[in-house]
């Protein structure tokens, strides 16, 4: 079965940051947008109120997977997500350094990396986006 | 398919996984300190002891470490018999006497009702319980900068000759994987020191925030055949850059 | 020259014929006898022989043999075939010896004198130490030159191999060993045939065979003696085993403390290769097998099979859990059979003489003979091989000559650091695998250390735990940290600082060692303590409560005093290393307690029982 | 060509991890210790990290990083020797040489070691000076044996 993909429509984004809140809450039980795995950053170069959404592409030939020395990043064949297996992770930070898009982040408190796991096939960011700027289909 | 029971629950395994894996999958808690999914099991901490038997053993049973015992057809596994619990308590007594300040040890010991060690406490004892996770992690996945040296009571984890290692890349996997926070390191923005070696944490070429050590970047670059400089951008700046390129595509 | 199945019997017949005409002077040049000048004795006799015009003339041969196992009597010189037996020979005696060799008149001063009957004995056939033994594993020990393959072949060497390769299938060999009931002589007593069978059945083309010559048990040296004195016997056993399990490569792991064994094995391997008995196409049958020597690095734990395999792989000798058997995944993760030296040397016997013959020796559960190293406080320290099932009493009192200096037997320690101490009440115990294990000790490799009333059992327990603390690999918690705690408690007790709850703590520590350790070293480490607490509990209590060591060993818990029985012979004063004993000749002597180090020398030399051990308080 | 004169030793052994212990034995034999600098070369030859070589070298008592004395005095502490008073010989040796077991005198002349049984139990207690075994040993004989007597 072909797995679904995350689609982003920046034009529809209003930078309400509901997605960031939802993501942080779902994964860390705290509503701090800075800890979110999706970024609805107002692009610093854009002054016209337009926004970009950045979230993991679950790349086919993923740099994070290639960089991980401990095979702690695995693709979930059902959701298509590259999942970070905390138990296997040796927390060397190689994946964070390797991801060219900044979608692999470092959790400063837990001292391990975190990334979008597509919420096991039901991404909360999609559910909470009021404008349809993020879709999963 | 191998079928066995753990604490009366029927459990199945396709390829002879270790009992610990099966028990945890079935939601049965077995304490461990030397277990790490990223490396081969060692059987060093002796906390995951379980009692195994078979009907044809006529009541005879033995203790084995769940982390190393492969699933076998018809095995009857019990994870909290009196024999198991006493062994576990006695092991914790020894660990607590060895590393009385190690938080993970204290917490586990308290769970088993041990608040004060009954044996002579090693006053100079550090937090290292020689679980071997750090050295296994480093040897298996990184550069093998540290190893267990000496033997018996003198055993410790160290770099060769206790000197700064040529091959250590300062990735901190050892320190971060340590269950008892026994590995000393220091970090302040641009530098990081561990195992007697000080590393420069290269500042982000865009914003100046710390990224990775030069040694780690080189090691990664060498392994994957990519340019070292690619690693010197922090994740925040990478997101911004990603956004920027998106914008260029979109608009 | 490479031998074949056709030429080897011819060669053997020829060698036998030649050697049957020889008269030999055999000089023991094993480690023990060398220490006492064995090589010089051999050289002196060689010179004497040539001076007497005997060298080179056909019927005389001077043979430097390997260790006889009776090193305390060394250097030993024997005449074959007569069996004349000279002890403690010095090079100056060479002339007399050669004269006696020619005339047939024994040199009475060099003969062994029986301690009980005070009678001089001419041949070793009549000496109880030898006559009460049944030497099968040690059949060639002291009878041949270990460096000459011809002498081994002449004594039916490589005959079993010849028989095996002449038509027996590997299956036949395994069945024969199984029928014989050969159990591993290394410690655990595991059935050798069964081990071979499971390795043969294991999947994989590459299989390994290992001979464990680590013999780490302090107080045991039968494997050293066998390797030094009969290396080809070990090789033959290994080649047969390799054929049975399907191995092409084998290792002999020898401890580095045994340089002579390494040397002799190395020479034996080279000459076996030259003669087509080892290497490619053995005896022209197409079967190939080769052996390498791996030197140990001075680690007792490497006697444990999984640690030994790690050591051969070039790693630190840390054991692995044996939940997957070595016969499935051993050395380099391939199916492996590991047996010890004494096990392998029994193999040619079984194949040559038949399983039924072997099984007729020994007891129901333990077949064959066993070599013991009986040392310590016995009259005759040395290697003793007897059929399994002989009682400890017979071994110690009849064969080894009992306790010296009229002292009383207290305990015998069997099985090395993994075994235990057995008291007098258990002396009727037959020595076999199962009886010893039942009594809380174990056979181990066969060390028997005899102790008398001058040995303190708490100190012995402390000694073994100290040994194990130094030798623990340090991998698992119970062994590394448990032994350290145990040593601390035992050391405290021997210093008179024992506490009321110490015996309970000892009990807990023994429990966690036995139940929780990773390998056999840790699992059995409690045995020396458990067995002494079990059989000599009152001695522990005396140490803890009364602060008294009755054996006079624990220095803080005793003092020596000279009683009125003193005749003023001055022996004690002369023996005292710190010169703290004063007294005139024929006057009662006095010990200056402030200087006395409690070494006990005065006690040991006094012939009148005038030195007494008293409580330090 | 290596700088430490162990090329011939390395050439004798295949460049695999399993040769490690044999190589270290040969180096120890030649230099009477393992010179620190040689270990990296051994690691390179065997294709293992230096830390692995160090781990092996510190695990086995046969290897030492400090040079052994010209005369190595080893006292057997096996069980047979223990019950016959080896401890007293050890103490005497420590007194005579003025060093603890495992040490070498500052002039580099003597090393004192204790060993766990050399298999010469029938002549216990045993002292080994260099390669020569001395059985049924008495503590008082030590001074003479080591040539440190009056």
Q: Which structural class is indicated by helix and strand composition of chain B?
A: alpha+beta
Give the low-pLDDT segments of chain B.
Answer: none
Structural class of chain D: alpha+beta
Strand count, sense and barrel status of the largest sheet of chain D are:
4 strands, mixed
Portion in beta strands of chain B: 15-25%
- Beta fraction of the residues of chain D? 5-15%
Report the uncertain regions of chain D: none
Shape of chain B: globular
- Report the sheet with the most strands of chain B, covering strand number, pairing sense and barrel closure: 5 strands, mixed
Q: Can you tell me the CATH class of the largest domain in chain D?
A: Alpha Beta
Oligomer: heterotetramer
Structure description:
The complex is a heterotetramer of chains A (137), B (251), C (617) and D (150). Chain A is α+β, with helices and mostly antiparallel strands and 137 residues long. Helices cover 19% and strands 13% of the residues of chain A. Chain A is built from four helices and six strands. The mean pLDDT of chain A is 86. Chain C folds into five domains: 18-127, Glutaredoxin, CATH 3.40.30.10; 149-359, Rossmann fold, CATH 3.40.50.11540; 369-452, Ubiquitin-like (UB roll) (Roll); 457-546, Up-down Bundle (de novo design (two linked rop proteins)), CATH 1.20.1440.230; 558-614, Alpha-Beta Plaits, CATH 3.30.70.20. Chain C is built from 25 helices and 19 strands. Chain C has a five-stranded mixed β-sheet. Chain C has a four-stranded mixed β-sheet with strand order 2-1-3-4, with helices on one face. The mean pLDDT of chain C is 92. Classes of the chains: A alpha+beta (137), B alpha+beta (251), C alpha/beta (617), D alpha+beta (150).
Topology:
The complex is a heterotetramer of chains A (137), B (251), C (617) and D (150).
Chain A lengths: L5 E3 L9 H11 L34 H5 L5 E3 L6 E3 L9 H5 L6 E3 L4 E3 L9 H5 L5 E3 L1
Antiparallel strand pairs in A: 1-6, 2-3, 4-5
Chain B lengths: L1 E5 L2 E5 L5 H7 L23 E5 L8 E4 L10 E3 L3 H17 L4 H9 L21 H9 L5 E3 L6 E3 L14 H5 L7 E4 L2 E4 L2 E7 L6 E4 H11 L10 H16 L1
Parallel strand pairs in B: 1-5
Antiparallel strand pairs in B: 1-2, 3-4, 3-5, 6-7, 8-9, 9-10, 10-11
Chain C lengths: L6 H14 L2 E6 L2 H5 L2 H14 L8 E6 L11 E4 L3 E3 L7 H10 L8 E2 L6 E2 L6 H4 L17 H6 L4 H7 L4 H11 L11 H10 L6 E6 L8 H8 L1 H15 L3 E6 L4 H16 L15 E6 L9 H8 L23 E5 H13 L1 H5 L9 E8 L5 E6 L4 H8 L9 E6 L5 E4 L9 H6 L8 E6 L4 H15 L5 H18 L7 H15 L3 H4 L3 H9 L1 H10 L12 E4 L8 H5 L5 E2 L7 E2 L9 H5 L5 E4 L3
Parallel strand pairs in C: 1-2, 7-8, 7-10, 8-9, 11-15
Antiparallel strand pairs in C: 1-3, 3-4, 5-6, 11-12, 13-14, 13-15, 16-19, 17-18
Helix pairs in contact in C: 3-4, 7-14, 8-9, 8-11, 10-11, 10-12, 11-14, 18-19, 18-22, 19-20, 20-22, 22-23
